[in-house]
Model the fold of this input.
Amino acid sequence: MKNIKYIFIAFAMTYAGTSCNESKWLEETPYDFYTPANSYQTTAQFQQALNFLYDEVREMHWKLGDQHVAMWCGDIGYGATDPNNKFNNFKTFFTPYTYVSGEYWNPAYSVIANANTIIHRIDMDNQVGTDDKKIIKGQALFFRAYFYNFLANLFGNVPIVTEEAETPRRDYVQSNRQEVYDQARKDLEEAITLLNDITKAKDGEINIQAAQHLLTEVYISLKDYDKAIETASDVIENPAMGLMKERFGSRKDEPGKDVYWDLFQVDNQNRSSGNTETIWALQYEYKNAGSSYSNEMPRWLLPFYAGLQVESAEDPNKQVAAFPTLTEEKGGRGIGCIRPTDHFLNEIWTEGDIRNSSYMIVRDYKIENKEAKGYNQWMVADGWYDKLSNDQKMRNFYPFIMKFSRIGDLPDDNYAKNPDGSYVITDLGEHGIVYQWGSLSANTSMKDEYMYRLAGTYLLRAEAYLGKGELSKAKDDLNEIRIRANATEITEADVNLDFILDEQLRELYFEDFRLPTLCRLGKVVERSQKYNPYGYNVGDYQNLLPIPYSEIEKNIFGNIEQNPGYEGF
Done:
């Protein structure tokens, strides 16, 4: 009984000592699950959070659903699978109620929210050293700026959020487009003071020059052309940077090719290959769990040649496959979703331009099926293309864009094998490749890919010079990349915005989304209606995309207005 009394007194004294700080006593300290408080403590944890931001950009550009295919529509491409519908009918595909706009809006704000958390928590007490804090914060600021610039380009007026989200909100207020660009400007100007120089950054890491490149575009959007020229010049004139003008990299000794071809070969996208043109490259490593997917452009952009039917040799009323085997030499397994426009394929090139070489854009192949009447004859040169239906010309056979395909050096398990282990070789000497649904093989690029390279910075500076009225300097920048490409030099009289947009097509084709650039410049409607065979399906109001109606509907305590032209949906 005496022991029980002492136990009770001890318990009462303990309670009395803690009852004066009730909130402290009730505070939970999680030990077996993650919260923001314990997930942002070490450099490794912050790096994991940054990795998510990198992956969101990579997934948006590489794992292309239908909504992403549309990002290459306009003056460079159109949908080959569904004439007059889907990608080819902006009036019905881009509405406030379709899923498409949300597929850009949602990842953008997801990255912004996560970047806000990193920016907020990196300055709190944690185990991260001073130097690492700078680099981490700089990268988070870059990604926030990247997506605010992306949103402003596509949608115009959008909400700006710079605080860590702690509770659900339904009171967002729309900022005008210039304010959104200005937020990106402020983030990038700060990021430049924190990031590593490109000479110190790891492969694929956001660096000072990447921030300067993006900031150049932002300054142009703000019509601050002097600063745009300054930031672009900081990149261009950096002694560590330079256009690649001589053969280099993993396949530089292969005869008959050129430096532009070298830029897109495996292992050549990073500075370790000697490439001084790279500013930012998205990273891929074959069969690494951390990069389980690669760029799907070969799948979407190459024609669906496996479905091409031609006349049988035995029966003129019978059709047989022109190309019964998927081959490495044709770039992989295309399904013909993005068909390049005739403007891109035929109207913008001058003779000798290596960007339009016969191995960068392949315009003809020989029929490979011995059962075909035209076996071993060229599809185009020997007239078989002229006999195809319009549907086949639209999807099954058009020029092959080879920039994203690995040809001649695929991992060995991507090659088709005979039962005896020998390689499957077609009668015309091409190498068969493996395809299984969901596999990496045949569908994807399986190599690093550019986000920014120096040629793009020259194009931005030319645009800034044009905005300032300094046409001679714009001409010089355009000629710098044209001379490298063995293209005809231009004169000052050639310089205008449409020429710069065409030069972007020539130099950077399909490397980055086209639609945000056209939206930024208010050129979607004009250039789609001029160069896209389905441009009549682009509404006069569609220089901006619609804000997803779900975002407006749930924001009951705030104010988000729909873009003009979409209110009636």
